[in-house]
Structures are given as C-alpha cells and as structure tokens.
Design brief:
The complex is a heterodimer of chains A (328) and B (355). With 328 residues, chain A is mainly α. Chain A has 14 helices and no strands. Classes of the chains: A mainly alpha (328), B alpha/beta (355).
Chain lengths: 328, 355
C-alpha cells in the first residue's frame, strides 16, 4: 500500500503541478518587492495560455515544415509577449495612472477571462476547448531504461523525478535561483527592493522609481506567460476557458508563504504541488477509509492555511507595497 | 494630482467594464432563429453551466436539442452562458423577463437558482437538466438521466477489455480508472454504474476512482490520469467535462491506457482521439430537451414532475467503438448487447450509488 502512495510518480507529479504556481509566484515576488501588488497574475497566465495555443495552432497548420516544427516554441514566445503586454497594462494603470492596484488587477483578471472567451468564438467559431496543437514539446532528456535489478529501480526514480520534464519546468527552477541571486546579490536587486521599502529615499539618491517598477511588473509578465504556456502548450496541448483555474491566486499565497523571496516562492509552490499530488494518491483509498472525496480535495488548501498561520510565523510584506509613488 | 487620480479611476472603470462586457457577450453563438410566423411558435432558451458551450459535453448537447427544435419546430432559441455560479440567477431571470419559456437550466448546480426563479416568474416554464426537484411546482420539470445505465455498459466493456489482449496497451494488472469532475449525483451515478458493470463481468477487477473537484481544469485531469496509469489502470473512464479532456491527453501521451469518454460521443468531439478512444458513455440530453420543447410547443409542458430518461427511453447509451471496432472481439460486443437487453427488460437494475 505504501508503494502505491510513495513512488517516483508522486514527486514528479508534485513538481509538474508546482511549476505554473512557482513561475507566477516568483513573478509576484519580484513585482511586490518593487512595491506593486499583482493580483492580475491569474489573468496574465490565462492570456499567455491562450495566445500561446493560438500561435502554435496557426504555425502548426501551415505547410512550411520548419514553421510546423517550431510551432510550439513560437507558441511559448507568443505566450510571453501576450502576457508582457497584459502586465504592461497593469503597470500603466497602477504606476503611471496611480490607480488602485487591486482594482487594476481585478479588472485585468475579468478582462482576460472575457477576452479569451470572446476571441475563441471569433477565431474558432466555438467556445470551450480549442483543437489540440499539432506538435507537442517533449521532455528535455530521454534516457533509455536500463535492464532490471536494484540499480535500474534506483535509476527509474532518478529518471522520473529529475529528468522527466519539459523545458519550462526546468526554467522555473532556474528562475527561482537566478531571481534569488538577482534580488539579493546584485545592485539591481538592492535598488528594486528599495522601491518597495522606501521609494522616496530611493528617488532622492537617483534611482528611477517608476522605471524600476515598470521593469518589475513586466518581468512578472514574462514569468506569467511561461506559466500559462506550461499549462496550455506543455501540459495539455490545448486551451480551454478559465483553464488557469485559480492558480494565479494560489501563487500569490505561495509568494507570501515564501516570504517574498524567489526560492521561498518556489518551495512554497512545491509544498502545495506536493500536497495536491499526495491527495490524488490518497484518494485511491477513499473506498477503503470511507471518507468523502471533498476531504481529500481540501487537504492542499488546509495545509497552506496551517503552514501560513502556524509554522511560518509573521510574514512581513515590503513596507510600501500597494502604494502608488508620486514624485513631488 | 486630483486629475490623475480621476483619470486612474476612469481607466479602472473602463477596463473593468470592457472585461465584463466581453465576458457577457462571449456566448456569441448564433442565437435567436429566423423569425417564424406560425402562431404556435414559442421562444425557448437555455442557461449553460459554468462549463459553458463548447464543453463538448452536456451544455453542447442541450444546445443541440434546442437547435433541433429550432429547425424542426420553428421555435426561437437563445443561449446565455454562466461564467460563475453567481451568474445563474441573473441569466435565468433575464431570459424569463424577456418572455422565453421554457427556459432550460443546464446542470445540477443550478437547482436552487431554478427553484428561486420559478417562484419569481410563475408564468415562465423551467426545465432543469440533471436536477431532481423536491415537489416541483407546475412550471418546473426536472430532466434526469440514468447515467448509471450508460456507466454500466462502459463498465462491461472496460471490465472485459482489461482482461483482453486486442491492444498492446492492455496490461495484466486487471485495474480500471475513473475520473470524476465534482462529486455530484450525475457523476456519482456514472461511477456507480461503471463499477457495477465492470464487477458484473469480473468480480475481482480493481477500480480506482479519483475526483478533480472541478470541471474546467485540464491540467488536473491529466495529472489524475497519469496517477491512475502509474497505478496500473489500462482503461480510464472520465466523467469530468473539460477536465476529462486532460485525462484523455494523459492516456494518449503515456501510450499505456485507453480512454472512455462521457456524455457525447467524444470520438467526434475531441480531435485526433481515435487512437485512445475505446467508446463513450453517452447521455442524450438533446433528446430530452427536444421532447420537452415539442410538448411545450403543443401546449403540453410536462411540469410539476421529475422525468427520468434511461436506456429504454433512448436517454442514455453507449457510443460506437469507431477506430477500435475491428479490434474489439465479438464476445465483448455480445456482452454489451446482452447487458443492454437485460437493463431494458429490468432483469438488471443498476445501482445509483456505490455500496
């Protein structure tokens, strides 16, 4: 029974499910460190997921062979571009126009849901789910499976847990490490954090507050686009309305839980992904233990709340997060 | 300062309104028919569940029923989509206020909304798909299906196929998988029927059931599918809307399992799925909707009761094997035919819940 729960598939599933959360959460971290709340992550991801599939479908349906082969990669690129544009809208509204950042974020989430639904009908004549993209993105590594024995079992664990993923899964890990380094060990990172803690002081020493915040929001757009592309292009190969299913909001919680650090955000997302993967495995015993299925479905959320409230202690947000900056 | 704050607010309002307008008009599916001149003509409409049109499942099927009514009976039709559970009441009252009757509410989750609106609009007739009303008033009819019978047939196919060898993906683990969207009665009836059907042909078969908690999360559906496959399931039946499309993807990507679709014949609705789509457990929501519109057009709306459509009424059934038709052995086809006869004659009564 234990081997049915604890197996390499459990950990691989956890990392796969953590990936879109982690990318969005790291984007949220960088954004909030600069002083801009980004609850638009959900919408930014959804837009990326949609336009990624639109471009992958369009390029994949041509008869130019290199274009067909490149179609999923062009899709990822399109997802990033679309998400950056959407993030740019949030930046313009909340930095330049000094709009309430929560209102702007909510508006973008609504806009993304409506726009993708509307464009699906316009482009494909039906709402719901798009056709599958013709060319999929395969796992980065593909090692042959060695013959039996203990060594082979050990290898199959390593192979599944470490080497079985598509590129964006690794990109998320790299983003966490690079983000952590950039934020805490570079001059750029110091400036960025100053914008979120005391923009007035940063301004007086010559740091360009508004530009710095724009850059941070656009970076969250890049990461949100990758998150969307991971969901639609890498994982399922098609788009369906509202397919992000609240992941942008879980990512915000992961960002707080990770104490506004990129690696913390990744680990928090991983914890959530692991809890979700674990509840899937535990559900298989639902008929044995006679517990309603909703109990299992709620476990990841309960775990998040418990960890946030109990184990972690008080998380301190950047002092000026959410407050528009105005030059005097 | 003041000016820019105001500009910001205006921008906020404009952006949110644009968002909501787009959300509101996304149905855009051809609504209203050619105006018909017959005096008997009625206006009928439906409100989709959050899965929405294009779910390739019961929302689309209900719409197909309306379209057939539009064509055959010359009635006017309209569809409003629900994007959130909070849209149900608004959509129902908008249609009732505009004089549509009967108005169909598609989905179990709309139960309370219909009960509320049927009191607010006593002159409008309502049909609730998948809703079993307690003491429905004269202007309400519940349209339910014996999903368990379709599930049973799928279970018979799966239970025999997992022991067969007509496809290299069928393993020796004797394990089947089920993926449910939310744990609501219609989905649970599919599950109960599937389990009963599989056990009827092989009492020793192992069936693992997993629920996603949502109908619109493909990525989750894929993870559930992969989990089932890693536990040895070589045939997975998903009653989970768009979540199930992700499960189909898991079967296709892993190359280790076959898939059984739900509600509509999913061979036709999921492109390029022929390689994994063994069959589908179908629910003819279109037939039920059409029948009610037909009765209503004749002035005989069957209100005040819950109707149940089973195998006998052509309300549920099993789809063709399509690409697997030549591979599936005759013994399985015979077993399905026998199960159909037994259910229709009443010799087999399929349970609606798991024991």
């Amino acid at each position: 029974m234990l081997s049915e729960v604890i197996n390499p598939e459990l950990f691989a599933s956890a990392i796969r499910m953590a990936t879109p959360l982690a990318l969005a959460a790291i984007g949220g971290t960088i954004c909030e460190r600069s002083g801009v709340v980004n609850i638009a992550l959900e919408g930014i991801m959804l837009i990326g997921a949609f336009f990624g599939v639109v471009v992958a479908l369009a390029a994949g349906s041509t008869h130019i062979s290199w274009l067909v082969a490149a179609s999923p990669w062009l899709g990822i690129l399109a997802a990033v571009v679309a998400s950056v544009l959407m993030a740019g809208l949030h930046a313009f509204a909340s930095i330049t126009l000094r709009m309430d950042q929560v209102v702007s974020g909510t508006a973008i989430n609504l806009l993304a849901l409506g726009l993708t639904g509307f464009l699906m009908v316009t482009l494909y004549g039906h709402p719901g789910t798009t056709d599958p993209i013709p060319v999929a993105i395969n796992a980065v590594f593909n090692f042959p499976t060695p013959a039996g024995g203990l060594l082979a079992t050990a290898w199959s664990w390593i192979d599944q847990i470490v080497f079985s993923y598509t590129p964006i899964v690794y990109a998320a890990m790299i983003a966490a490490v690079v983000g952590q380094w950039a934020l805490f060990h570079t001059r750029w990172g110091l400036h960025l954090r100053a914008l979120g803690e005391h923009p007035r002081a940063a301004d007086t020493v010559g740091i360009r507050v508004l530009r710095g915040r724009y850059v941070a929001v656009l970076i969250s757009g890049v990461l949100g686009g990758l998150a969307g592309a991971n969901l639609s292009i890498e994982q399922v190969g098609s788009f369906n309305e509202n397919m992000t299913a609240g992941r942008g909001f879980i990512a915000l919680a992961a960002n707080i839980f990770g104490r506004w650090t990129p690696i913390g955000s990744y680990l928090a997302s991983l914890l959530f992904g692991f809890a979700d993967a674990l509840q899937i495995k535990l559900q298989a015993f639902q008929s044995v233990v006679q517990i309603p299925v909703q109990f299992f479905l709620m476990l990841p959320y309960v775990l998040t709340v418990v960890v946030l409230a109990g184990v972690m202690g008080r998380a301190v947000a950047p002092a000026e997060v959410g407050k528009p900056y105005e030059k005097e | 300062m003041k000016r820019s704050v105001r500009t910001g607010l205006v921008a906020a309002v404009v952006v949110s309104m644009a968002g909501m307008m787009l959300a509101g008009c996304s149905p855009a599916a051809p609504s209203g028919g050619s105006a018909s001149s017959g005096a008997a003509s009625i206006k009928t409409a439906m409100v989709t569940d959050v899965g929405g049109l294009g779910d390739k499942s019961f929302n689309d099927l209900s719409y197909a029923g309306l379209q057939r009514a539009q064509k055959d009976l010359k009635v006017n039709i309209k569809v409003l989509q629900s994007h959130q559970i909070t849209d149900y009441v608004t959509n129902l009252s908008e249609l009732s206020g505009a004089g549509y009757s009967p108005v169909f509410a598609v989905g179990f989750l709309m139960s309370d909304a219909v009960t509320q609106e049927s009191t607010a609009f006593p002159k409008t007739d309502f049909g609730g798909i998948d809703i079993d009303f307690t003491n429905p008033p004269k202007n309400v009819v519940g349209l339910n299906f014996k999903e368990q019978e379709a599930g049973y047939l799928a279970g018979v196919v799966a239970g025999l196929a997992t022991q067969a060898t007509f496809d290299p993906r069928l393993n020796k683990d004797n394990t089947l998988g089920f993926v449910g969207g939310m744990a609501i009665p219609p989905v649970q009836r599919y599950e109960a029927g599937f389990v009963a059907g599989a056990k009827s042909v092989d009492p020793g078969v192992k069936i693992i059931s997993l629920y996603a908690g949502r109908f619109d999360d493909q990525a989750k559906g894929k993870e559930l599918g992969l989990s089932l496959i890693s536990s040895g399931a070589d045939i997975v039946f998903a009653a989970a809307g768009q979540t199930g499309t992700g499960t189909e993807k898991a079967c296709a990507d892993s190359g280790k399992a076959l898939f059984i679709g739900v509600d509509s014949d999913q061979f036709l609705t999921i492109p390029n799925s022929g390689n994994v789509m063994l069959t589908s457990a179908v629910k003819r929501v279109d037939n039920a909707v059409y029948l009610v519109v037909k009765d209503a057009a004749a002035g005989k709306f069957p209100g005040g009761q819950n109707l149940t459509f089973g195998l006998k009424d052509d309300g549920v059934g099993i789809a063709p094997f399509h690409d697997f038709d030549s591979k599936v052995p005759q013994s399985i086809k015979d077993a399905v035919a026998k199960a159909e006869t037994d259910i229709k004659s009443g010799a087999v009564v399929v349970p609606t819940t798991l024991k």
